[in-house]
């Protein structure tokens, strides 16, 4: 009815700085979608243990579906139910994006060229269970089954024996069904931008107290992008005198080892670069501080989204111009343990810093195609460099290749302790290619 819609619209128009429990959060998201139907798409990607919807609001010029050439970005907050700042600032980010579209040229271009997915809460049950706000740990950190969702994903380094929770499974399915390129996971309890890997072994250099991914340079850039645009994170003072983070960033493993984390899962199995943003020393601060948290993070949240346009993107097609899904496309010298592959539309996206790279496209069973590209910083133009590949001799669709969920890096260490890490990766890639064939 008209009155109901008007009520929803007025809800969207007035977002206050206070905590929004499940009903209010849902009402707000539905109100925004009702007011901006062509710019937003609201859907639930699953349900929590207690049956609450896991809402995601998608924003962009084509909010309902993926468009070729437009990268997918996501923010996820409140994975630990008692870490609440991210949950609220994502609602304010939504408010800022929809009200600035068509008025602010930068936000307009950002939304025209990016599909942005925002999940204010991954653990609604934990949030509702946190009855008394506290700066420190509470039981609300966990989901209803008492599981820590950020220890619940498959791990690339060791067997994670935790039973996969409904919230985790929903996110894993979501990652599988979208072509996410860049992501951040919003937490609380510290003030730092933390990046992959969270776990490690000798192959990734963890014996030296730092677990290095093949894209370490990109991850450092991503973490610094956020910290340097944040009001104070870049100062690196941390939350007490014991802990300091130079420039406000840290390698996850260097900070503390973590098994089954979401950011490593995104990177290894989702082809999506994710960092973890710790946004407040106090996990569940008083509501009267929320406006300051929004001001402190607003610029950083926008600048970070722009980084989805770093690097190179393109399509791999056959002799008839049809897309080739599951072709491997990677930059030479940085192979992923689970090779990065094209999606159903034959698209690939590789986040790379400006510089010269050789891009290697491989359709299993055919000769690889190499192209040298000079990558500029295109984030200001809201489009990565475009580089397509056409395989004139191919006229079929390669079989769907999925990476096994076993701890992939364990296989590398077993191969031979004497061989250098780079060789380990190439040995595994060859093995994987054989499996996929």
TrEMBL record:
Endpoints of the signal sequence: none
Keywords, ordered alphabetically: Carboxypeptidase, Glycoprotein, Hydrolase, Protease
Keyword Transmembrane set for record: no
One Pfam family hit: CarboxypepD_reg
Gene3D superfamilies attached to this UniProt entry: Carboxypeptidase-like, regulatory domain, Zn peptidases
GO cellular component: extracellular space
Residue ranges of domain Peptidase M14 in the record: 18-308
Molecular functions (GO terms): metallocarboxypeptidase activity; zinc ion binding
SMART domains in UniProt: Zn_pept
GO biological process: peptide metabolic process; protein processing
Active-site annotation: 278
Family: Belongs to the peptidase M14 family.
Name the UniProt record assigns to this protein: CBPM Carboxypeptidase
Organism: Tachuris rubrigastra
């Amino acid at each position: 009815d008209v009155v109901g819609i008007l009520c929803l619209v007025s809800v969207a128009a007035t977002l206050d700085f206070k905590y929004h429990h499940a009903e209010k959060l849902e009402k707000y998201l539905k109100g925004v979608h009702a007011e901006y139907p062509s710019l937003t798409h609201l859907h639930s990607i699953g349900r929590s243990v207690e049956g609450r919807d896991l809402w995601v609001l998608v924003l962009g010029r084509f909010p309902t579906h993926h468009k070729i050439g437009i990268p997918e970005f996501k923010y996820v907050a409140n994975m630990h139910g008692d870490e609440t700042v991210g949950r609220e600032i994502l609602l304010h980010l939504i408010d800022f994006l929809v009200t600035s579209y068509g008025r602010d040229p930068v936000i307009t271009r950002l939304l025209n060229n990016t599909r942005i997915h925002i999940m204010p809460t991954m653990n609604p049950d934990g949030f509702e269970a946190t009855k008394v706000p506290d700066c420190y740990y509470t039981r609300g950190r966990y989901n209803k089954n008492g599981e820590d969702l950020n220890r619940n994903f498959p791990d690339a380094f060791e067997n994670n024996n935790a039973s996969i929770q409904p919230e985790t499974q929903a996110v894993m399915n979501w990652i599988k069904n979208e072509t996410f390129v860049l992501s951040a996971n919003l937490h609380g309890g510290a003030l730092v931008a933390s990046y992959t890997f969270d776990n490690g072994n000798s192959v990734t250099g963890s014996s030296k107290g730092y677990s290095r991914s093949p894209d370490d340079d990109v991850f450092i850039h991503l973490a610094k992008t956020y910290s340097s645009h944040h009001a104070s994170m870049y100062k690196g003072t941390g939350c007490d005198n014991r802990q300091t983070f130079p420039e406000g960033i840290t390698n996850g493993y260097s900070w503390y080892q973590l098994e089954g984390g979401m950011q490593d899962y995104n990177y290894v199995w989702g082809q999506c670069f994710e960092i973890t943003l710790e946004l407040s020393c106090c996990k569940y601060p008083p509501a009267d501080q929320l406006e300051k948290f929004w001001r402190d993070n607003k610029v950083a949240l926008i600048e970070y989204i722009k980084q989805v346009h770093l690097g190179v993107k393109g399509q791999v097609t056959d002799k008839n111009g049809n897309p080739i899904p599951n072709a491997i496309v990677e930059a030479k010298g940085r192979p992923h343990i689970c090779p990065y592959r094209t999606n159903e539309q034959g698209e690939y996206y590789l986040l790379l810093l400006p510089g010269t790279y050789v891009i290697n496209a491989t359709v299993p069973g055919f000769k690889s195609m190499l192209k040298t590209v000079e990558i500029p910083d295109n984030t200001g133009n809201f489009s990565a460099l475009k580089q397509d590949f056409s395989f004139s001799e191919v006229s079929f669709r390669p079989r769907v290749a999925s990476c096994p969920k076993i701890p992939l890096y364990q296989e590398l260490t077993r191969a031979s302790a004497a061989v250098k890490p780079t060789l380990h990766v190439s040995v595994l890639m060859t093995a994987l290619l054989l499996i996929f064939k």
